[in-house]
Amino acid sequence: MKIRIVVKNKVVLFSLACAMALSADTIKSIEYKDVNKLSPEILNETLAMKVGEELNQNKLNDALVKFYKFGYFDDISISTDNGNVKFIFKEKPSIAIVEIKGYKSRAEDIDSVRTLINLKKGAMYTEKRVKEAKDKLLNILSNEGFINSVVETEIENINDKSVKVTLNVNKGDEIIIKQANYHGSNKLEQDDFDHVTANKEVEFASWWFGQNDGEVKIDQLKYDARRINDLYFEKGYLDAQVKEPFLDIDFASNQAKLDFFITEGEKYTTSGIKIYLDSSIVDPETIYPDLKLIVGNTFNIKKLRTDQELIRTRVADKGYAFVEVKFDLIKDEQTKKVNVVYNVIPGKKVYINDVKISGNAKTLDRVIRRNIYLAPGDLYNLTDFKSSTNKLKRSRFFENVVIEEKRVSDEKLDIIVKVTEAATGSLMLGGGYGSYDKVMVNGSISEVNMFGSGLALGLSADVSSRSNRFEISLKNPAIRDSDYNGEVEVHSTEAKINRTSYDSQIDTKGFSVAVGKQIVRDLYLGTRYKLDAVSENYDYESGKKEAIIAAGKKPYESQDYLSSSVTPYLSFDNTDDFYFPREGVKAGTSVEYAGVGGDSKYIKPSAYAKYFYSLEDLAELDWVLRLKTQAKILIDNGEINQGDSLYLGGTKTLRGYKSYAFPSNESGVKEEPYKNLWANSAEMSFPLVPSAKMRWGVFYDYGMIGQDTFTDVKRSGTGALLEWISPMGPLQLIFAHALDAQPTDDTSSFEFSLGTSF
Length: 758
Description:
Elements: E1 2-8, H1 16-22, E2 29-33, H2 40-47, H3 57-69, E3 73-81, E4 84-91, E5 94-101, H4 107-116, H5 127-143, E6 146-147, E7 150-159, E8 162-170, E9 173-174, E10 176-183, H6 190-194, H7 221-234, E11 241-242, E12 246-250, E13 255-263, E14 269-276, H8 301-316, E15 324-332, E16 337-345, E17 351-358, H9 365-369, H10 382-394, E18 398-409, E19 412-421, E20 425-434, E21 438-450, E22 455-464, E23 467-476, E24 484-498, E25 502-520, E26 523-540, H11 544-550, E27 559-573, E28 584-594, E29 601-614, H12 616-619, E30 624-633, E31 635-639, E32 676-689, E33 694-706, E34 713-726, E35 729-738, E36 750-754
Parallel strand pairs: 2-4, 5-8, 10-13, 14-16, 17-19
Antiparallel strand pairs: 1-3, 3-4, 6-9, 7-8, 11-13, 12-13, 15-16, 18-19, 20-21, 20-36, 21-22, 22-23, 23-24, 24-25, 25-26, 26-27, 27-28, 28-29, 29-30, 29-31, 30-32, 32-33, 33-34, 34-35, 35-36
């Protein structure tokens, strides 16, 4: 006997005759065809019948209903042939591609939208799912202040099993806030509110960078009220109340008026701070001196939260990963004073269960692990956790780094490291133009993560009509995955200088070897040995050299000599990124001792410091302040040759002036080398195209150089720059202007290069 039952659209129909027939059969076999979404185990469990059992209509009916509830199938056919049961499934197609056009441009933003509307690659396609996604997207657009938005959907069949879904977005018109009113605000002004709110009054020339565009963001309105409330709390107004704003929209003009209603109250003073914490874990007395809130000063909720995080960090650094720091504010409304009480609940000590790494197709796991300060079995430390992220970002191996915690139990957690690898191999070409060198070209071939091992190999060249430099280097940031690092470098340099009375050429060929070690977090100690063979050649115009001798003075004489030096150094780097640091310090000091053999005998102490500060927390602006200072002193220890002199000028010391611009000796009379140098730089960096990692900035440089003092030559320069982390490496365009140049100075108005950093 053979019976075929076809079930479509989740409708299950069985006749009484079929039921009677089925009841007489015994199941000989069960077969599932054309099903990929469910495993045989799940199918069998859902069917709830086995071979050898009697075929049961009710169980079969229940199984069919359950199969459809999985949401994976359009049709299910069932056939029996002498007890052989066969299920034939027609699966719904999967969504292979989701495109969103006309809304957002960055890939990460589009991915975020896909998640919000629940329309991701791999999801089952249904008309209902796409309609719901469309409605969610329209709601998002509405919340962002767009009216009359339209979203059209296109469904393209790729094959029988997959489709492409395209959402074409017409964002419609934006509502512009023409006027914002803050009723009841006497202590704070509109500019104060504009720093914290998402919705703000449109400003004149709103298209210009930094100006308020006035676009309504409906989903942010209720949060704006809270932000204003927090702002008052930062200023000490603990009784302040800010109601949700009222938005009055004129749809004829697409303009709106925004009204906030504020009750300010009076300013509170911090009268006392108490931390309740088990002193055997951390002594509270060691925390009080570092708190931002100060007794006797105006209360500030932002400083309180900073202090809360400080307390959490101090305790979490002892292994208490799940510590809770709660606070109470005890207000005296009569005296307008407030006591702050912190209650610290440490929980249990937590150990690292596992470190899981993902996203590294090229970089070896061990290379990532050596940059993470926590390993399986270690006691948890929050500072180590935060520092690991910064160290990985500074490695240059990754475009993005995210480190998360995953709780396993009360006493264990996993560290989840997610990386997005960056292009580490590059072919770079750059150049510039200077009044002296004219056209300059530089290029390099480099790989900073060879074979995913972290080894860096580089070959570079700088060529112009006046100078040439070639260099090849090999660096290992962690020798055998230890705290030691090493570098071998070979170089050749030719520098030609044309003066009024003579031409000079200094050729240098040599190599250097360096070994260093991390002695504490972010602090490195090392030594470099360098050997150079130097050739100095001077070609005087006819009669000039003789005239100098006749005047009883000395001209420069051509000579060949060896310079052999050892340089111990100390360096520190806790910045949060290699190319675009926003926070942190880079600093270092060294003492070069020339005289380990060779002909040059001198001592050259030097020091530098770079400071990076983001204004995001201070003013909610993606502006980064960069400050740099460096100083060098050349001390005679027996013999200083002309090539040993200090030089000022160029992108590393004084922009707007050519490299080696100072000292400038036009007469040809031999002078003492310049022995003192001090160079300073201040930059402000602004976002240009964040999605493309492009920024721009302005700078001011000031430098001094001299023979016995720092002040023989004083110059300054200013200008603007463009920065871009291009697919080929970091690109920098420099537009410089020498502020106080003398007629004989070698200036440079424009330079560009790949691979440079501040």
